[in-house]
Specification:
The chain has 795 residues and is an alpha/beta fold. It is built from 31 helices and 23 strands. It binds alpha-D-glucopyranosyl-2-carboxylic acid amide. Its EC number is 2.4.1.1.
Length: 795
Amino acid sequence: MTTAQFIREFEDNALALFADDLPKLSPQQQYQALAVTVKRYYAHDWAKTKDHYDRTQQKQVYYFSIEFLPGRLLASNLLNLGIKDTVEAGLRKLGLDPAVIYAQEADPGLGNGGLGRLAAAFLDSMASIGMAGNGNGIRYQYGLFQQRFVDGYQVELPDDWLRDPDMWETRKENRAVIVKYGGQVELRPRPNGTLQAITHNTDDVLAVPYDTPMVGYHTGVVNTLRLWAAETVPGRVHNLAEKARVNQITQILYPDDSDSAGRELRLRQEYFFVSAGIQSIITHFKRFHSDLAVLPHFVAIHINDTHPAMAVLELMRILLDEEEMSWDQAWTVTVKTMSYTNHTLMAEALESWPQAVFQGLLPRLFQIAQEIDRRFRLTYARRYGELVVNNAAPLADGQLRMAFLAVIGSHQVNGVAKLHSELLKQSVLKDLYQIFPERFTNETNGITQRRWVQIADPALAALIDCKIGPAWRRNPLQLTQLRRFETDEDFLKALMAAKQANKQRLADLIQRQLGLTVAPAALFDVQIKRLHAYKRQLLHVFGILEAYLALKNGEERPPRVHVFGAKAAPSYQYAKAVIKLINAVADLVNRDPAVNAKLRVAFLPNYGVSLGEQIIPAADISEQISLAGTEASGTSNMKLMATGALTLATLDGANIEIRDAAGKDTMAVFGLTAQQVEAAQREHSYHARTLYEQDPLLHRIVDMLTDGSIPGIASEGREIQDELLEYNDNYFVLADFESYVAASRRLDVLYQTPLAWAKVALANIAASGQFAADFTVARYGREIWQVLPSQPADE
Ligand code: GLG
């Protein structure tokens, strides 16, 4: 395609859509016309890919996830289609600014954080390595709330992301299915002696799929993300209240990835996309096969975290009740089809449902769960003893435990980083690990360098091309070749200059958004992730206060800008208190002329994928400071290293593997190890108050929370101080403080020698390739799904 061709098609589409010439349209209309133009460039490949899968009957993966955070798709589609440069040149020729047009697209906030972003990255990667993989989830009408700060407090506004039409989705009315809730189950004997379950008086909801293309990077493969919307069943009488109840199912994303206790609507959501997804898989499968026993040869269903764990029950239901399989056969098929990823050790995130709630909403599924439970106990009690079996069974203490159900109903179970996968076996899943050791495996998370480096940091990408050619764009492992240039001063200087330009852009954004001036020459110290006690943004704040006191004391420090991005779940009071604290400390520091040439704090509101694209390329320091043993993997650690930030970290999650890859001296490591934390917890040997009493600096900082030195945090300061002193500091902030400050100071020292710093930054970039999600999904394919990457035949 030439620029001229593109311009002609773009102008035609604009005219057809809006009956006006391009220059007269609003940027949003221009964006829409551009999206329509781009759609035409992949439409053929999308149809061809589906057709190819049907004809070859290769095995397909269905990735079930209650969250997908794809980010804006325009630039990514252009990049993956290989026409980004051509299109941008065309836009400029027309006098349009590509950045302005890209910004018109709503960023679909259909997820909370790492979990949802990982799911989206996997889809991008599957298409990009030519793997037959689809997403299955929910088309939320409102995404994760938009965050504003009012007087330093988080305020949540609805995210009406569909106000302008989503240009990529296609409504597939002809693929709608009916999802049934409630009712009474009748068991009728079949002639062959088995029982048939029929559920009467169900509450029926129409599930309508919206398909979004997942365009592969230069592969011609276009896979599908299928998101389901709830509607009333046509032709049935509905009053307004009923209608509202149905629409509610897919109205909002739960803004809390760690606490979904007892929420019936959440349970409805889960069954909604699980049932719709499985029904549509089976219907499609039956177009080509008559024997459901061979399902696992053609279909792999992945349970992403526990939310879709009832997929085990729903597939069993269909095989037993609709396909008339025997229990044993249905169970064999189900276990071979399912696999499950655990994403957290946090107890509150291991979903369980009160039996009565589950049974009321999904009576037939509950019967099946009971039968799974009965057989599980019967099969393993003798060998492993009552205690182990009771600890591991799906039903106990009036609860249905979804993680256990997922393990029992899957042939493979994985954690998301080496440490996490080990800890799973020792803690939350330890009893099931005894019974099914062969099922447990690790698949360390990954990221898409396409978005985080190629799109978000084009200057760095171009520099890399200059040295090692463009092959890394296809195969990020090639980045290791950059090591050869660690003594190439000109290159190191160029790297730092590119970083500097990115920092200037972020400084401009901070100026625009917060009215705060920051110097791009300062160290940009970044922590971007959900606000959670275990992630310890509080430790970062304590580090800032340490520097504040030192500067007030006349000490010399290289200038630093602390950049935060974090949303707190609206019901998570402690997290919101920390948000208020960060903003209050920002006010204190930024307004104090005695320190503010050396120390600034910028808390940018509404962190999400798009803001991440602006912050990440500008980071010098990546804060990955969770209490060891609590962060399953982390993925911002990988994104930040890929654009050359140095990691300040505990030995937690994937930090450990990052250090192993980049080299010991490339990371500023501090703090207790997971083992030490576990021992301290087991032996109750940690006493936060003693530390507070013995360490004068800590004492001073903890006191600042309540003595009025930080204005505006009377109640929040008290709450946080109580957590530290009265509740014995559950996340060991005080314990790790001293070594945190020491590690952070080592980075100050290194920054004094720009070339030494640049060398470490380069080592990080060079080692980042192994954390490409392309490799992660290829491993899932080999080890879990038995689906290999393959390109559709070019015809
Ligand atoms: C989880 C974990 C993260 C992990 C992510 C993706 O907390 O450590 O990187 O999943 O596996 N709830 C999450 O975001």
